Amino acid sequence: MRSAMKADGTEHRPVMVAEVLAHLEPARGGVFVDCTVGLGGHSRAVLEAGASRLIGIDRDPAAVAAAAETLRPLGGRAVLEQRDYREIEEVLDAHGETSVAGILVDLGVSSMQLDAPARGFSFRRDGPLDMRMDTSAGPTAAEAIAEVDEEMLANVIYEFGEERRSRRIARAIVWARARQPIATTGQLADIVRRAMPRRGASRIDPATRTFQAIRIWVNRELDGLDVFLERAVRRLEPGGRLVVLTFHSLEDRIVKHTFRTLQASGEAGVTVRTKRPARPGDAEQAGNPRARSAKLRALERDR
Ligand code: SAH
Question: What is the pLDDT of residue 1?
Fold first, then answer.
């Protein structure tokens, strides 16, 4: 699969494209919604496979600009909106669509966001401690960390990072910020690394889980994910498909439970198409680090 490459050389390879297309079946035609358009890789594949029209949503203004470039050769079949996908109903109403043939959600951050030091997501590259996906709103990670109380911070790191050393890390952060504001990703990574007991030759950076936790917290990534999925399902036409890609167990658990509840309730009239989550093949995992933790779940609205 080609990757979407920007002029500055950043790229993002869309994950599990073949599996996404097999579930969405864009060749049926109709309107498709990409709730996390990113650099537009999946969107382009959906359009090339036969979708009549695509509505692409992303809360990151830089992603919307990048996707516009990727999708330009496809002409007027794509429209893009800088919005939070939790507002999917407002977006569909604004475009006069009551129900659609397919909806894709590819959760998490893009390589474009992760790899740009200025965005402040990465503990590998020093940059301002920002971490906002929507750079037009909300406190940065630096601002949030400057104000949060220690107990709340420990809970965030424990819950969203599944980090056992959460109390110790929170204490170290609060201790450090009393001496000097924590303004960069490098500072935060050093504080966390120093708070962790030395391990053997682990390949995983000790700051990994804490950075994931703070990113999820700053962007409220799990808030209302279940309600959003229920809303999305209501906007599927009969036979319409919803496909969700997740990258950590917290997200996948919410998707799994919401899908099960929707199917069991009967009233929504949906059938889950994936008994177990689909996973990328070995070749894709070897070639694309972001794919390694991916899980795909899909459902269909009954006809
Ligand atoms: N499928 C894309 C990559 C998506 S990466 C591609 O092929 O290029 C995930 C994207 O989801 C990021 O660009 C991020 O900004 C966006 N995102 C995350 N949470 C969001 C939300 N609540 N609303 C809208 N976009 C969101």
Answer: 45
